[in-house]
Design a protein that fits this description.
This protein is mostly helical. It has one domain: Arp2/3 complex 21 kDa subunit ARPC3. The chain contains 16 helices and four strands. The strands form two sheets. Strands 1-2 form a two-stranded antiparallel sheet. Strands 3-4 form a two-stranded antiparallel ribbon. The relative contact order is 0.08.
Length: about 425
């Protein structure tokens, strides 16, 4: 019965009557993708829990039984986690596209350029990482080429978005009209949040290591993929966008702590762009920026207290405080978007009250789960030992004209002292 229902829904409909009396009947509309999405989400949830438990149990056993094999096991576990994440992403994205096609939500001018851009970004990151294994020169040349291609793809997406918004389809498809006052307010809010995030990222990340290297690129790709996969495991999904996930922000928060706020904000920005493909609510350019790139770029500030010496022995408090600040900025982005772009959904309630209530329902529970998971993970001494290797502040270069310390050391300290020849005894023959 279930199979026949799914096939009927997939085929579309069946008819009765003839001519003017012909009637189309849709059996279980949208049940194919809806059933598949909900069922697979539960399957992936339990599979993720089982995978984490098994990997941790085996890791603990390896650590105490064969310490020298722990590094090799960690790489294997990471490869399994990434493989699982890719499986979740491909499966759920495919179903998401099928669902949008059924409901008429696919806008070719926006969706497919965004997909191509995401593919270019992923392949560019992979190419830069592979090139970094050969030499710095190869990495630099590949980075320039990959950056140029990625920039061109991103520009194409921006142009397509401009055309889409200018045509009026964005507002028409959502049944809303954004006034000039609301539009100006959203642009000002977006610019203000961008300035706040940028200032905090540079101030808190002034001790971070500069530039991307092979490790920071590979870890960024892994953490973004893990967060994107976990974002599909959401027991609570809000009707107008937003969800409560099982720690989807944890990999991004850990990355920010390990590599600094500047790289963390960049990773969050890329993750926000991917969220546009996953759950697109596109009404206005500034609304898109607020709900996606800006909101998740703020998560990259989670590591802002990583170099605070007074909290050095309390990494759990460091990541918790950073997560709270990041969540407040993310909430502000969604709040402004809700007030100025989605106020039509609350005709009988004040827009500020509606937006406050709606966004608080999922933003704070989502970050609370992520912070709780981070506190548990950061309580592991073995984990923190590995994290400290990446989160150590960059060493300051010596001032211009200053010589290294060893050069200032006296010559006697630079070389071992030679034993003095014994003084000749009285009457001894001198050579």
């Amino acid at each position: 019965m279930l199979l026949s229902s799914l096939l009927a829904a997939y085929q579309g409909y069946w008819t009765t009557g003839e001519g003017e009396n012909e009637v189309e009947h849709y059996d279980y509309p949208d049940v194919w993708t809806s059933f598949a999405q909900e069922s697979l989400m539960n399957v992936f949830l339990y599979a993720a829990i089982a995978l984490v438990v098994i990997l941790l149990a085996v890791g603990i056993f390896v650590r105490y039984k064969r310490q020298e094999s722990l590094a090799s096991y960690t790489r294997t576990a990471m490869a399994l986690a990434v493989g699982f994440a890719v499986t979740v992403i491909v499966t759920m994205l495919s179903l998401e596209f099928f669902d949008m096609a059924e409901k008429g939500y696919i806008f070719d001018i926006v969706l497919w350029p965004s997909v191509v851009c995401a593919i270019v970004l992923v392949l560019s990151a992979a190419a830069v990482y592979v090139a970094s294994l050969f030499s710095k020169k190869a990495m630099r040349i590949t980075g320039i080429a990959a950056g140029s291609l990625s920039g061109a793809a991103l520009i194409c997406v921006i142009v397509c978005l401009i055309v889409y918004y200018a045509s009026g389809d964005a507002e028409g498809n959502n049944g809303v009209t954004v006034t000039s006052t609301e539009s100006l307010a959203m642009y000002l809010c977006a610019l203000g949040l961008i300035a706040v995030i940028a200032v905090l990222a540079f101030v808190c990340g002034r001790k971070d290591k500069k530039g991307f290297d092979s490790k920071s690129i590979s870890y960024a790709a892994v953490c973004i993929a893990l967060s994107f996969a976990l974002s599909y495991i959401s027991p609570i999904h809000m009707p107008q966008g937003g969800s409560v996930t099982i720690g989807s922000l944890v990999p991004l928060m850990i990355y920010s702590y390990m590599f600094g706020t500047k790289k963390g904000v960049f990773a969050g920005f890329v993750y926000g762009l991917l969220q546009i493909i996953q759950d697109p609510w596109l009404i206005h350019p500034a609304q898109m920026l607020l709900d996606y790139p800006i909101a998740f770029a703020a998560i990259g500030l989670s590591g802002m207290f990583a170099h605070v010496k007074k909290l050095e022995k309390l990494p759990q408090l460091q990541i918790a405080l950073g997560g709270i600040v990041a969540s407040v900025l993310r909430f502000a982005a969604h709040l402004f978007s809700g007030v100025f772009a989605f106020s039509y959904l609350a005709p009988d309630v004040d827009a500020w009250i509606y937006s406050l209530g709606y966004n608080a329902t999922y933003v704070f529970p989502d970050i609370a789960i992520a912070i709780a998971v981070c506190i548990i993970v950061f309580s592991s001494r073995a984990f923190m030992k590995q994290v400290r290797k990446f989160s150590a502040p960059a060493k300051e270069a010596p001032a211009e004209g200053a010589a290294p310390e060893i050069a200032n050391a006296p010559a006697e300290a630079a070389a071992p002292a030679q034993p003095e020849a014994p003084a000749p005894q009285d009457g001894a023959k001198k050579q």
